Amino acid sequence: MSSKRLPRAIAVTTTLVTMVSANLLMVPTPAHATFGTADIKPIESNIAAKPWAAATAATASSNARLAVDGDPATSWRPDRAGARQWLTVDLGGTYDNLRKVKVLFPDRGVAHRYVVEASSDGRRWKTIADSSHNRAVSRGEVHLFTRPATRFVRLTFTGGPGRARAGVSELQVFNYLRDDLTLGADLSWMDDVQDQQYWVDPLAEDRGAGPHLLDVAKDRGMQHTRLRIWNEPRSESTGQPTPIPRQGPERSLVSAKSIKQRGMGLGIDFHYADSWADPSKQPKPRAWAELKFADLSHAVYDYTADYLKRLIRQGTTPEKVAVGNEIINGFMYGSEAAHIGTRTRRTSSTRPMCISPSPAVACCGSTGGRPTPRSGSSTTSRGTGSPPWPRPGSRPSATRHRHPRSRYT
After folding, report:
1. Torsion angle of the four alpha carbons 119, 123, 126, 130, in this order, in degrees rounded to the nearest 10
2. Which of 183, 210, 289, 390 is the most exposed place for a label (fewest CB within 10 A)?
3. How are beta strands 13-18 and 181-186 bridged, if at all?
4. What digits encode the pLDDT tens for the residues 266-289?
């Protein structure tokens, strides 16, 4: 494997969030690095600029989109002057982790007076920023807030800007991770050539012997690494077992040790397949292909529990476990593939298991960055010390614990 694959590792960076504090902003702190330091800052995204968001206004609504186009040189301006002109952004779905609103106006030398409100349904509003008595001259301002289940954000002018004409150049609404973020990536391909070395600067004149891929990732501030697990690694094109069972259960045990030896967090992603599982295909492992549904549930349960116990026994307890990969359309298809979204998505084997120490269990979906409906959001489940979870087929006392403040993003 060449050093050119390093950018791929950075490109597939994901973030895992466990909400453990109520702090609003993160003060960037340098991460320990072998060759310098890496500053980790909050990752933010302007949801108002996403293609599924929309803007409307009290007047000149056809131009309201100019206030959310990401271009501060364009502006929405109302048809007439005066107070109570408003601009509303519909984010397309509710968000629990919106933290910041940034407002930019067309005119710099004006003391703009306005209020910003948020709503879940577009009818009941709560003020999140009040600049109705503002006397400071500026082009705009940043407002921090915390309000779960926000879908609509509305700016209303409460006073005229003197001789200047009212308008909004940008109304930006940011969804970003807080100071409790954990930066990580799926680095399963470290198993492709386990002893491959990498360089922090592959273009340097004298590169010398480079560090291990995990050392490079840690040097860049990564704290968590996820490994995908294929039951019996097979070629995606031929279906034949691969000569070297990379990303299989046995080799992944070795990779897990390398991760833990560096003090990094470990995530396990059970694909429940012999090759790639994603929204377009979720094939059963070959060994389970002919099992009846009840037997399949038992096989999944036993396979998952046994492998987690092996990880724990060798001192590599995972912090997070993903049950399936990108299972928005279900998983482990057989004849059920024609009925996606029915029974294949409700296997009883996905209940948390009585394993100690208990890792967090996550459902790995794929929504392309769109907001997830609150009633069906991917949540993290964790054992709670209650009596052991029953095996599939028996009558459970509970189905799963919901922790909406702990998410796999």
Report:
1. 100
2. 289
3. antiparallel
4. 999 999 998 988 888 888 899 998
Query: What does the domain layout of the chain look like in residue ranges?
Result: 3-42+180-408, 46-176
Identify the three-state secondary structure at position 189. helix
Residue type, position 383, single letter: G
Cα separation, 325 vs 299, in Å, equals 18
CA dihedral 252, 258, 262, 264 (to 10 degrees): 0
CATH architecture of 3-42+180-408: Alpha-Beta Barrel (3.20)
Q: What is the pLDDT of residues 28-87, one digit of tens each?
A: 444 444 555 556 566 788 999 999 999 999 999 999 999 999 999 999 999 877 668 999
What kind of fold does domain 46-176 have according to CATH? Jelly Rolls (2.60.120)
Enter the DSSP assignment of 285: P
pTM to 2 decimals?
0.52
**Reduced to 3 states, what is the DSSP secondary structure of residue 325?**
coil
CA distances from 183 to 6, 43, 219, 291, 405 (A): 16, 10, 12, 39, 18
Say if residues 42 and 176 touch (Cβ distance below 8 Å).
Answer: yes
Q: Provide the residue count of the chain.
A: 409
